Amino acid sequence: MKAKLIINKDFTVGKIDNRIYGSFIEHLGRAIYNGIYEPAHPTADDMGFREDVLEMVKQLNVPIVRYPGGNFVSGYNWEDGVGPKEKRPRRAELAWHVIETNEVGIDEFQEWAKRANTEVMQAVNLGTRGPEEARNLLEYCNFPKGTYYSDLRRSHGFEEPFDIKVWCLGNEMDGSWQIGAKTAEEYGRLACETAKIMKELDPSIELVACGSSSLFMPTFGKWEATVLEYTYDYVDYISLHNYYGNPENDTKTYLASSVDMDNFIKSVIVICDYVKAVKHSDKTINLSFDEWNIWFHSNEADRRLERWQTAPHQLEDVYNFEDALVVGCLLITLLKNCDRVKMACLAQLVNVIAPIMTENGGNVWAQTIFYPFMHASNYGRGVAFIPVVFSEKYDTKRLKDVPYIETIAVMNEEKKELTVFAVNRSLEENIDFEIDLRDFNKVELIEHIVLENDDMKATNTVDNPNNVVPHNKGITKINSASAVATLNKHSWNVIRFQI
Ligand code: AHR
């Protein structure tokens, strides 16, 4: 099969906001406890953070991490997690039916974020709480000194403000499972008043309003429009959440998941711009796709979990090779929409539906999905070009005309590097992939990285952590004005050129 990508230097989607490579850590399962934090672990640092995990997180080059939830935040009292650890309460946590020890709170997490070279995206509880508690938390985190909450922070040993820039106004407030779920009108009013107060205290922050919990919510669309009608002048982003999966073991359809993601993004953009028009506003609301990933492997095991444990093995999806291909396609889709998707969070980062897994007291390893994320985050910075793609197409049970190839090119001007990301979705055929480079002078191939496997269900485990790993022996040949790459059947490819 043949395919072609034309890149024109003047036709860009836009500058990529690095925060598109964000992630998420919730107080859930073993994400915090026995994930990033395990004081008894041989690699634990002075604050109890696992250095082996920090090392892996740094490889992913994650610029922002959403915290502390997720569903967890909608019942959370942030005050439980600050001050002397021995005084912190143990709580019955109602979102995930576990015991929360509160050993880690915002003080520790922002310190972990510094050590991981990342920033915190902080969510506030708009489920059981409201504007006042959100304001107090903001004062605790960002106010320099001389007020009750800023001085409380200083009394806990944190003289300098945390300066958290991005704040989420609640989490999935449209979901019936959410503690304190709301109608669009109720949430719209609450989010508007909370946003007003928070921006009075710190006008430099950016705020994210909750969009729908997924494209498939019955209130999708109307929810976004109503929420934005209330909050438009006070917020900067609307959130999108969606998880993908292959429960019916239909790989051809599964590999087309990014078409759904693209439709979702395009629909939310239209709604944002509809509200902009109705309000005669000059302001544009951008998108924060702050929960996306694959989530279905662990559903059955989680249904059998005993309640009220501390840090149980919860949402521990073991990802296989085909999941990595889907994650690659989803990353390309975020890049294709980088003019409006300014932030995105791979949900989540450690142990809970995560690229990084740990053994209590033992090893850390990379799941299959670690690799496409690492490649995109490290090589996908700069400007994304509009992909003009010629490819054969296929039909799935639900979707028509899915191109066999998902691809985009990114230019990093600073490093003078052009990187093409490409997934060959075909389960049967390799693709001869021509990349038209006539707009670029003196192009040299740096490397062609490939993630491939004969077994679509191959996984990495603690005993076999290098079963699915990339190599850089892909074949790309440069001619005068183009390059031709061989994209092996069902493979993720990163083709790096020096310009
Ligand atoms: O990431 C797991 C959960 O998925 C989050 O807590 C919630 O926001 C979403 O439903």
Question: What is shown here, in short?
Answer:
The protein is α/β, with parallel strands linked by helices. It has helices spanning 51-60, 106-115, 131-142, 148-155, 184-201, 222-231, 251-254, 257-278, 299-303, 321-336, 370-379, and strands spanning 2-6, 12-15, 22-24, 64-67, 91-93, 98-100, 119-124, 166-169, 206-209, 237-244, 286-294, 341-347, 356-358, 364-366, 383-385, 388-390, 393-394, 402-403, 405-412, 417-424, 431-436, 444-452, 476-478, 482-487, 491-498.
Write structural notes for this entry.
The protein is α/β, with parallel strands linked by helices. It is built from eleven helices and 25 strands. The chain has helices spanning 51-60, 106-115, 131-142, 148-155, 184-201, 222-231, 251-254, 257-278, 299-303, 321-336, 370-379, and strands spanning 2-6, 12-15, 22-24, 64-67, 91-93, 98-100, 119-124, 166-169, 206-209, 237-244, 286-294, 341-347, 356-358, 364-366, 383-385, 388-390, 393-394, 402-403, 405-412, 417-424, 431-436, 444-452, 476-478, 482-487, 491-498. The strands form six sheets. The chain has an eight-stranded parallel beta barrel with strand order 3-4-7-8-9-10-11-12, surrounded by six helices. A six-stranded antiparallel β-sheet has the order 2-15-19-20-25-22, with helices on one face. Strand 5 and strand 6 form a beta hairpin. Helix 6 (222-231) crosses helix 8 (257-278). The two termini are 28 Å apart. The structure holds alpha-L-arabinofuranose. Alpha-L-arabinofuranose binds next to loops.
